[in-house]
Amino acid sequence: MSIKRHNPSDILSKAVEANGFVFLAGIVAGDTSGGVKAQTKDVVDQIDKLLAQCGTDKSKIVQAQIWVPDIKLRGEMNEIWKAWNGGKDLPARACVEAKLADPKMLVEIMVTAAK
Amino acid sequence: MSIKRHNPSDILSKAVEANGFVFLAGIVAGDTSGGVKAQTKDVVDQIDKLLAQCGTDKSKIVQAQIWVPDIKLRGEMNEIWKAWNGGKDLPARACVEAKLADPKMLVEIMVTAAK
Amino acid sequence: MSIKRHNPSDILSKAVEANGFVFLAGIVAGDTSGGVKAQTKDVVDQIDKLLAQCGTDKSKIVQAQIWVPDIKLRGEMNEIWKAWNGGKDLPARACVEAKLADPKMLVEIMVTAAK
User: Fold this and answer.
1) What ipTM, to 2 d.p.?
2) Mind listing the domains of chain A with CATH numbers?
3) If chain A, 115 residues long, is cut into consecutive pieces of 10 residues, what is the mean pLDDT of each piece?
4) Spatial contact of A36 and A107, defined as CB atoms under 8 Å apart
């Protein structure tokens, strides 16, 4: 069994590979000046890049958790979510309301993929 | 490695099989007119059916996350939870408070099972 | 496929082994009289013991979820988190705000490890 860790900060790794799975950290927008749609696009772009780094892609995501600081943002987030996955290879998913690390952050997404 | 997805909506799959695990979506009651006990029973019944569809069952659940929109509902939810699993084959579990997609939803449960 | 469950209560197992992974329950401090730093230390000590019981250790944690009842507690929690893992072998992680089972609980941590 070997574990491979990618893009460490001082508190977390952005991605961890182990036993045929890739675990991504909760990803928030790099640029939090925009609304929830812009931030969701920023997040899924980062997820695409991290999954590619780990040798997998969005078609292999098995589970996703999404947090929004106001559940009313769910609809707009979902518009970008649906544009991103195009209705294909959809993961098991839960989306609930939670305050995030910074009040400017309007969405956080954490996924697990197979590889 | 093959991934099998079940019961897709426009945003998620209700269940995803990969690498010896079954990942279920966060399940909410189909009928949200009842209290938290009725809704929890509705949810665990759905979980039983989804796990059966994936060739596994509640005795193989390894992890569960539970969200209730008011943490005071935890006690009543637990009554149904305990009746359901009968104190056997208990998963690792976390239960925290979070607003869900609709204010009528009083419980959401997401489980991962082995198969 | 075999599943091994450890330290069951009436509602959950503190740890579950399956398919090369160890799933821990959301762990809260045994002693909730202290502040968030003392409670985080209490939690990571319990995590160390549970992982050891399952034949693995913190260097193999792949994913972590952390809940604090006030997101402002995140900084103090992180101090203990960083002292614990020493910047090495960092898991994918998400930390959001959520009310926990008891208002005295100031942190809950749920981890998944490989073994």
Assistant:
1) 0.97
2) 4-114 (3.30.1330.40)
3) 95 98 98 98 98 98 98 98 98 98 98 97
4) yes
